Amino acid sequence: MFIMKKQLAKSIFKLSGWSYHIEPNILENKQVLIGFEHTSNMDAVLSLALFEILDIKIHTLIKKELFKGPLKPLLEKIGGIPVDRKASKDIVSQMVELFETHESFNLVIAPEGTRAKNGEARKPIRTGFWHIAKAANVPIVMMYANAKTKQGGILGKIYPSDLNQDLQTIQRLYKEKVGLDVCIPESKQ
């Protein structure tokens, strides 16, 4: 079901000079996995390699426009779920239904949305991942890819309870554990 074999996945890390670290006992059968920083297309390659090494079947939200033409079979193979970004209100309920109807479901989301260019000011992250995890009653697992140190992995998880407090916790953990600045939106009531 995966598009890479485990040995190839390990070779990708070795040849690229990247390493990874996984906190023990983090992963469950169902979770929303978020990742920072989304700075290049290499993020996707490294993420797919890491999921292969960990034997995790993932799903990820991808703009529906990419599912037209020759990319469609590949996107489906890697667990892509086409999303109409103009109709984003229904995404939470659609994802909750997928969590409810699968024994194991791992949804990967890049809260930054599009890749940030070097030197570009960070925009506040989108909070859809939190709303999906809260509604589906699943944890949020925090992944990272630090291009400066060429290190990536999984640093921890939280169970969603209060949006503002959880965003502050996510921001603090990324800063403390891996030195990444996560720009969160201003408090929401």
Automatic annotation (TrEMBL):
User: Does Hydrolase appear among the keywords?
Assistant: no
Tagged with keyword Acyltransferase: yes
Q: Which UniProt keywords apply?
A: Acyltransferase, Transferase
Q: Which InterPro entries match?
A: Plipid/glycerol_acylTrfase (IPR002123)
Give the Phospholipid/glycerol acyltransferase domain ranges: 32-148
Q: Which GO terms describe its molecular function?
A: acyltransferase activity
- Spell out the Pfam families in the cross-references: Acyltransferase
- Lineage, top-rank taxon, reads Bacteria
Q: In which pathway does it act?
A: Lipid metabolism
What protein am I looking at?
1-acyl-sn-glycerol-3-phosphate acyltransferase
Q: Which organism is it from?
A: Acinetobacter septicus
Source species taxonomy? Bacteria, Pseudomonadati, Pseudomonadota, Gammaproteobacteria, Moraxellales
